[in-house]
Amino acid sequence: MQPSTGVPAIAGRTPIACLNCASAKTGCDKTVPCSRCAEKNLPCEARFARRQAKIGARSKSFSNIPAQQQRSSPPISHNSVPEIPKQESEPPMPSNNNVLDPQLQGVSQAETDFSMPALQMPGGSYGTPPNGTLHGHGMDTMCLDNDMEVYHDFGLWNSYPPDIDSMFPGSGMEAQMSLPSFIDMGTSSSASDAMASTSMDTSLSTHTRSTSIASHSDRHGSQSVEMAMPILLRDTMVPEFEVVVAAEAAWPLARCNRPIFSGSCPRTAIVHLENLEQHSKDSSTWKLLDHNIATAEVDHKYEISVVPLNASSRDRILAITQGFLHTALETHRGGLQRWRQASIPGGFNFLVLPPSRVLEYFLRSYVLSLAPYYTLVHGGTLDPNEVMLNNQASTLLLLLAIAYGAAALPTAEARCLTAGLTETCRISLFHIIEKDVELSADPVVLRCALLFTILGAWSGDAWHMNIAMGQRGMYLAMLKHAGMLEPAPPMNFSNLSTSTELIWREWQQREGKSRLVYNWVMVDQELSLFHDTAPILSITELETPMPGSEALWLAKDSSEWLTALQQQQQHQHQHASPSSGANGGGADWMNPNSNSLGVPPLTPSLCDLFQDMLHDNINRRYDKLSPLQLKLLLHPLQSLLCHLRQVLSCFSDFFGSRRGTRTVTKASTLLRLEEVQSLLQNWYELCLVHAKNDPTCPVTRANLVLYHLISLNALTSFPEIERLARKESFDGSSRELSIRHKRCIHQPEEATIHCGQIIRLICSMPREGRPHWWSAAIYRAALILWVDSLSRMDQNAQRLDKGQIFAIDSVMLDDPAVVSYLWSGEGIPVLTKVGAGMNGQTHFKLLPDEILGHSIELLGQGVALRVSDGIKRKLQELRKNWSLESTVVVAHM
């Protein structure tokens, strides 16, 4: 073994990590040979920071500026970034456009003279380049020369081959492939805990269209550095990758600002995978999650319990997940990259998952957040150990459930786990189906596809959102081709000696398939609503029976199931009418106590139920529809309305009031639109029965929000609203605004009331357990109110408001003030300020800037999901874009 010697002194140059350590992305003590090379008997080649003389000159000139002036100085061009000079009492720190607190402790002088400080993080750096590598010259230090540009435009990422670093090691091309930075978005409690423990790499970018390079932590020779919060970004959000923030413009929804498309969208999938890979290089990487869940435990009052994970199941999850992650990384990196990773010492490590206690918390969070809306867990118990006894698809299902539960924990580590597992499971799910096409009809695989679609479509990551929307059609086709939409024959047990256990098992299997189908129906309806597209499934295809009673589904054994069955039988006989049909009590039930079997009759299909609604037979044939059945009825109503809106959008004047100019097609379409609105009103009256009996039912609340959103689609054109928000074909004149407003909103008063009800219902929901689309609902209500307020600005300035003030987010639809406002237009609609007390509520008028500011505050009231943070940033950008424009519009009115 070679003796370690110091690095030869070279005037004006600072030693950095040797070539081997830089290639392996590990720490280096910067001796020759370093301890790692000496231990592995490798040739050690020293490296030095470049062009230190020029940097030193800049640092010297910058030292003449007082410290206080440095902190308050305006942003500096990224081509020449000065440094704070060295002082005896305070180590030096490189400066960039972001204003940072210079009180950094524990940084060695060699690392802070002229190079980017190493940020300590369990498992290495928190970001990786788009091609997945970080090695070679110039990557251990921030190169600040004008002729060495380190900022790389997002739109040019795809112009470089993914394996160019493998073909040209140590070239200047590597230095140009910059690392997506990690933006700290604020001072929330969970984020501050993460920052305090220095578990995140908070390298900050100086440009919204560029990325930064951060050196990896030196575990052997350097101490950790605590990076202060930036004061330029004041949002109370979880720290986020800049590449993810930049890709938000490519979302398939919430497009109120100028969009970008897939050809120029940053690559985020590999960032999430390598982020998870980096976290898996250290056994202590998930300790902060364990601390966070101890302070974030919620009272899970839902009736589904979670069985603890045993050691054997955890080992199986770990082994299978490691294979999944390797497959995903190989898919993104390609062959040359795989060869390179295998040839480098200290490459990918064994996968490290969070502790079992954390995984169980995520499963409970999954049950609390998703199970009330998509009931797929039978027996009232989720047992991950039982799930793991099956095949790889079952492991995928469990991992997706963990990822969904982790998404509700507002920390950077939880987001790392969610995004990494989502992409890992997506690729493995596709490979499983590709290897065995028969699995396309497997209920477990289709449940995995359902969870991925929900998780991806509402992930807040552009890649996952777009691919989930693209692949949902494929998964729905698999569901259809598997025959699961077809009518099911009645259960027939000719042998009276058949045990209740066998009947229960058979019913459970059929019920599970029915719930799988109709969960897909609900997802199809929700995605079509929020993306302003037509549902994929047709109502005439949905002939399989709808799910039965929740009491039967949640029964823990056959005896409990039989008891619930008998109770249901007695209730239906008491409320049966002579003309009752399916599910109305007209079927004959056998008495299990007299050597005969009680078999539940088939429930109606959604197609049957919708036909009864069209014929106005609901009240006559059904005692009371369940919240789940009411939610399913929204699918055909949404489909009808979507097609009518598409036809109306083809007319230039939309809802033109001049009868003489209407064509037959337009008149008939408007008449059909009124018919759909009448059906929606009938649906609302049916739902009010549940809302009055159980006001806190999460499904009923979510149903009412969806109802108001669908009703808004009958009154507004949301794609037109977003076009106006983006100022497409808008000259800024009051005349143009008036024309565009008519195309955006048909009945402003009614639309205002619906928006207020959406806000009221969502604010009444508990923070934990809200539907995953709640932030998108707030966004749509906010934009409709905002566009309407733009057109009313001149009226508000010129007229005297008459009538009483009423808060649209506090009153019910039957309130006298609402009725007066809808019929005569009298009344002053306002919104309640966030945090206003019940006794001393304060309100504000519906003005554009006030509405956007209020909506941004509302988004901060719920759990900080990645999608809600992204929508919040979009509204902030919209508010900024129109802050001056709205004043110009008023001036021309």
From TrEMBL:
Residues 190-203, 566-581 have a biased composition (Low complexity). Residues 55-101, 190-222, 564-595 are annotated as: Disordered. Residues 60-80, 204-215 have a biased composition (Polar residues). InterPro entries: XnlR_reg_dom (IPR007219), Zn2-C6_fun-type_DNA-bd_sf (IPR036864), Zn2Cys6_DnaBD (IPR001138). It comes from the Eukaryota. GO terms for molecular function: DNA binding; DNA-binding transcription factor activity, RNA polymerase II-specific; zinc ion binding. One of its GO terms (biological process) is DNA-templated transcription. Keywords: Metal-binding, Nucleus, Transcription, Transcription regulation, Zinc. SMART domains: GAL4. CDD domains: fungal_TF_MHR, GAL4. Residues 17-44 form the Zn(2)-C6 fungal-type domain. Signal peptide: none annotated. Gene3D superfamilies: Zn(2)-C6 fungal-type DNA-binding domain (4.10.240.10). The keyword Transmembrane helix does not apply. The keyword Metal-binding applies. This is Zn(2)-C6 fungal-type domain-containing protein. The lineage of its organism: Eukaryota, Fungi, Dikarya, Ascomycota, Pezizomycotina.
